[in-house]
Design brief:
Elements (H helix, E strand, L loop, with lengths): L2 H11 L12 E4 L9 E5 L4 H9 L4 E4 L16 H12 L2 E4 L2 H5 L4 H8 L3 E8 L2 E13 L1 H12 L5 E3 L5 E10 L4 H6 L4 E6 L2 H10 L2 E4 L2 H5 L2 H12 L4 E5 L8
Parallel strand pairs: 2-3, 2-11, 3-4, 8-9, 9-10
Antiparallel strand pairs: 1-4, 5-6, 6-8, 7-10
């Protein structure tokens, strides 16, 4: 399949109508839409190392969750890291697709994958205003907050998680991969006794128990990275002959 053919298929499966208004994603870089795609690299982030890996490995396409270009690119001068990265991709003929908040919201996307990994049942959507990105569901059996935090850590292969324990048994759980600071109140309003997200501010974690909800911050990368397997599955469903590899793009580590 060609670059544009693959993008059109994914564009239909993960429609832009699901994106938040402030978002910027989609067809980020397309030096040649008619290029035949044989090798695809799936990554959470289009980092410099990911681009170098794609270049050295002869990849035709990078598909990411986080946008290659998010806050805008004012010039292609090569004088800053983003424009240099884009120029490298153009010179190499490598296209980039990014599916951000629409991949959070779509059925089978970031938050459905996260809910599935944590064993939630009877999953429905929740969100903040018109942005219903999150998912909420129930555990088959109640757990203590400590036991559930361990479950989250192992399910996501995270080095650690932060737990603000309200002393509540964990039964009804809301999840939102990545930065979920703005949806704490929405999770509680949806009836969650526990909220799992990627990152939360210190004061939110401190106030969580007093507000009557367990809070777990499991890492921005670790709550979203599992969706890369879903992106790979969708790509191979379009063309089983593709060589499709997942790249571990996390550059942050604990010491």
């Amino acid at each position: 399949m060609k670059i544009r053919e693959i993008y059109e298929q994914l564009h239909c499966q993960i429609p832009p109508s699901l994106s938040c208004e402030w978002d910027n994603d989609g067809l980020m870089c397309c030096p040649d839409g008619e290029r035949e795609v044989k090798r695809v690299l799936v990554t959470l982030d289009v980092t410099e190392k990911a681009v170098k890996y794609a270049l050295e490995g002869g990849y035709d396409l990078i598909v990411s969750h986080h946008p290659l270009i998010f806050k805008g690119l004012r010039a292609l001068s090569g004088e800053d890291f983003l424009s240099e990265k884009v120029l490298t991709l153009i010179r190499s003929g490598i296209a980039v697709f990014s599916f951000h908040t629409r991949l959070d919201a779509v059925e089978g996307g970031v938050n459905d994958v996260l809910a599935g990994l944590l064993g939630l049942e009877r999953v429905t959507v929740f969100g903040n205003g018109d942005e219903t990105l999150g998912r909420i569901g129930e555990l088959p059996c109640p757990m203590t907050a400590d036991a559930f935090a361990e479950t989250v850590k192992h399910a996501l292969d995270a080095p650690f998680v932060l737990l603000a324990d309200a002393g509540l048994s964990v039964k009804r759980v809301a999840v939102l991969g990545g930065g979920g600071e703005d949806d704490i109140a929405a999770a509680k309003a949806a009836g969650a006794d526990t909220y799992v997200t990627g990152e939360l501010k210190y004061h939110s974690l401190t106030d969580g128990p007093e507000a009557g909800m367990n809070l777990i911050a499991a890492g921005h990368f670790y709550t979203e990275f599992p969706v890369c397997r879903e992106l790979r599955r969708r790509l191979l469903a379009l063309d089983p002959a593709l060589h499709c590899e997942i790249y571990f793009s996390n550059t942050v580590r604990t010491v």
